[in-house]
Amino acid sequence: MTKYEVYPDVGVKVSKIVNLSDDLALALAAKDIRIEAPIPGKSAIGIEVPNAEIAMVSLKEVLESKQNDRPNAKLLIGLGRNISGEAVLAEMNKMPHLLGAGSTGSGKSVCINGIITSILMRAKPHEVKKMMMIDPKMVELNVYNGIPHLLAPVVTDPKKASQALKKK
To answer: What is the DSSP letter of 56?
Structure first.
């Protein structure tokens, strides 16, 4: 993704630029563009255009980045790279919620496995006392059965999931 910053002249309405989204995508030969209007903290409008070549981001690169130099952050997870190419990491214990959504094949399962791997690589089992996994589709998480970080085996029955959460 390449982000362009546009500084409109005084008096130019932001909505006028936002309404040009389809025309800008056509002019840039881009499938789709994203307009951030305004960029928080700036008097600029951001126009994000997908790159012609897709760059692969490996979890290893993210976890080996300088942003990961926080040895006491046991729940620091690697999420990817931002538009500037810098590693994006977050401390799960400082997030009240995390919502992952996307279409089929967009990488939700890859993201979940990256989060779990990040935790397993940083924290000893006794430092992750209440890790519970629920996988009603029985597709992704069974590979983690038996790891010492889990409070209980991976729950696959939706009816048992609510019971397991109430118990623990």
So the answer is: P
